[in-house]
Specification:
Blueprint (H helix, E strand, L loop, with lengths): L15 E9 L5 E9 L5 E6 L9 H11 L3 E6 L16 H17 L6 E5 L1 H9 L8 E5 L16 H7 L1 E6 L2 E6 H9 L2 H7 L3 E6 L9 H9 L4 E5 L10 H18 L17
Helix pairs in contact: 1-8, 2-3
């Protein structure tokens, strides 16, 4: 069963509502989002980044967001440019633009008096939140789900087209049965980012989820992220789970752990949003 209203995870739950919202990227594209709101505001807020070529509506994102809202978190999940219901062309995006859009989403939340204390990222979205955390003053804690320690890891998904990308500047690729255009700029941008260096510099609490059965991103990535991180840090093995957390029980378990863990590391504060808005510089 899916995790829905009235489903208990750790005892006391709240009713939650979902708003369909949009906000504008730095490039002027309208980004589609869902904002989960608890019945009574607790001041706690989270921002969820979905996996590579996925959308905000992938089951893991929707289930975890809904469950956290039932336990008092406001949670925003949104489609990156060119994916889901957001405007723009996916082929013009990069890992850096994803990071910039996370910062924009956090600023939008701040405008709703919901500055996010928690970032949650699934797969490449996990790498993105690790990179973006230092750009968002309100963030105190980070959770990753099946995240790669090196964003360029995803190029294995279109390894057969890499020669064409090198020769012609772009190629049409098939990812999970859907066609996408991948440009050389996207690949080059991935290689600029040293996620483990960002992790070493971070002072945020970190919770890492990964399955030893993950066939897409090997659990060795979780080990490298964990070893690079400072304390406080925690690792949870999702034994038996697949990369997409397609079993509702795995998403429900992750949500329950996140909720309990976050209470220890999140305090309510008034963040300084003096950092200038702008494109992320890797």
């Amino acid at each position: 069963m899916d995790v829905g209203p009235g489903t208990t995870i750790q005892g006391v739950i709240m009713s939650a509502k979902v708003e369909s919202v949009t906000f504008e990227s730095l490039q002027g594209h309208s980004l589609s989002a869902r904002l989960h709101l608890p019945e009574q505001s607790t001041g706690r807020a989270a921002l969820f980044a979905h996996c590579f070529t996925c959308s905000k509506d992938v089951p893991a994102a929707s289930r975890i967001s809904r469950a956290l809202a039932e336990h008092g978190f406001a949670v925003l999940r949104f489609d990156f440019t060119g994916l889901g219901h957001s405007e723009g062309d996916f082929s013009d995006t990069t890992f850096s633009s994803n990071i910039a859009e996370l910062e924009t989403a956090a600023r939008w939340l701040a405008g709703r008096d919901l500055s996010p204390q928690l970032l949650i990222g699934h797969s490449l979205g996990g790498a993105a939140v690790l990179a973006a955390a230092s750009r968002i003053p309100s963030v105190q804690a980070i959770t990753t789900l099946a995240a790669p320690g090196d964003p360029s890891h995803i190029t294995h998904m279109f390894a057969a087209q890499m020669q064409e990308i090198d020769s012609h500047g772009q190629a049409n690729v098939d990812i999970a049965g859907r066609p996408f255009t991948v440009k050389r700029e996207f690949v080059d941008d991935l290689e600029k980012h040293n996620i483990l260096a960002r992790v070493r510099e971070s002072d945020k609490a970190l919770l890492i989820f990964h399955s030893p059965d993950d066939a897409i991103v090997d659990i060795g990535h979780a080990r490298r992220i964990y070893e690079a991180a400072r304390h406080p840090k925690s690792f949870i093995s999702l034994a038996g789970a697949d990369h997409m957390l397609s079993n509702p029980a795995d998403a429900a378990y992750a949500a329950s752990v996140i909720e309990a863990w976050a209470q220890r590391y999140i305090t309510l504060n008034n963040p300084d949003w003096s950092l200038p808005a702008g494109d992320f510089d890797p």
